[in-house]
Amino acid sequence: MRRPTLRRPRLPRTRRGQRRLVQAVMAGCVLALLPSAWMYTTAADRLRTADEVPRTDVAVVFGAGLWDGEPSPYLAHRLDAAAELYRRGRVEVVLVTGDNSREDYDEPDAMRGYLTRHGVPDGRIVSDYAGFDTWDSCVRAKKIFGVDEAVLISQGFHIRRAVALCGAAGIESYGVGVDAVHDATWYYGGAREILAAGKAALDAVFRPDPRFLGPREPGVERALGRAG
């Protein structure tokens, strides 16, 4: 039985056809990079260091995976930054948002435990158990927890997307990008952001509901009341 042969795509033979092909490729590249350009432009004046960030009631820390039930090194760096901001009096409440879609995987509780071991009182930590992605976390912070302003904490390769999406969700935010070792995970995260930017742009335009919305929760208001 003869194997089917794959035909190579035919390139245009005329200069006009070749020019159109080049133009189409260039247009495709521009369109692919537009979401990233939007993300960088939107967040450009919203990035700060821990020393520069304005005092804000709430810090939001996004989940970044667990290792044997404990925060991964990348997540631990985010939590360290949040604990430092709390100790400096730059924030009063930390909203930890992450994945708890399975009984054996609980990012928010692991994040809470880490923060309490590093000096943040349990009463000033609020958990969002349905922060399945960045858009869900931002929308839920606004609609469920009533957050209007926040300091967002994540790695540099992710913080711009977080700021852009929280802005689209109605939260005035500043982003603190924490340091990270440029290992394989860092390079993977940076490459992933190029693809994630496209989804982020669609989320910002169409503003879908999160996977799980649920009723309003007073956790942030209560924590701020105790903090006052």
Strand content: 5-15%
The total strand number stands at: 8
Uncertain segments are 27-31
Strand order of the largest sheet: 1-8-7-2-5-6
Sheet of most strands:
6 strands, parallel
Description:
The chain is an alpha/beta fold. Helices cover 48% and strands 15% of the residues. The protein contains seven helices and eight strands, in the order H-E-E-E-E-H-E-H-E-H-E-H-E-H-H. The protein has a six-stranded parallel beta sheet with strand order 1-8-7-2-5-6, sandwiched between helices. Strands 3-4 form a two-stranded antiparallel ribbon. The longest helix has 29 residues, at 15-43. It starts with 14 loop residues before the first helix and ends with a helix. Residues 27-31 have low confidence and may be disordered.
Write a concise synopsis of the structure shown.
The chain crosses the membrane at residues 21-40. With 228 residues, this protein is α/β, with parallel strands linked by helices.
Question: How do the helices and strands line up, and which of them pair or pack?
Answer:
Layout: H1 15-43, E1 47-48, E2 58-62, E3 66-67, E4 70-71, H2 73-87, E5 93-97, H3 107-117, E6 125-128, H4 134-143, E7 149-155, H5 156-168, E8 172-178, H6 184-206, H7 219-227
Parallel strand pairs: 1-8, 2-5, 2-7, 5-6, 7-8
Antiparallel strand pairs: 3-4
Helix pairs in contact: 1-5, 1-6, 4-5, 5-6
Organism: Streptomyces levis
Keywords: Membrane, Transmembrane, Transmembrane helix
Transmembrane segments: 21-40
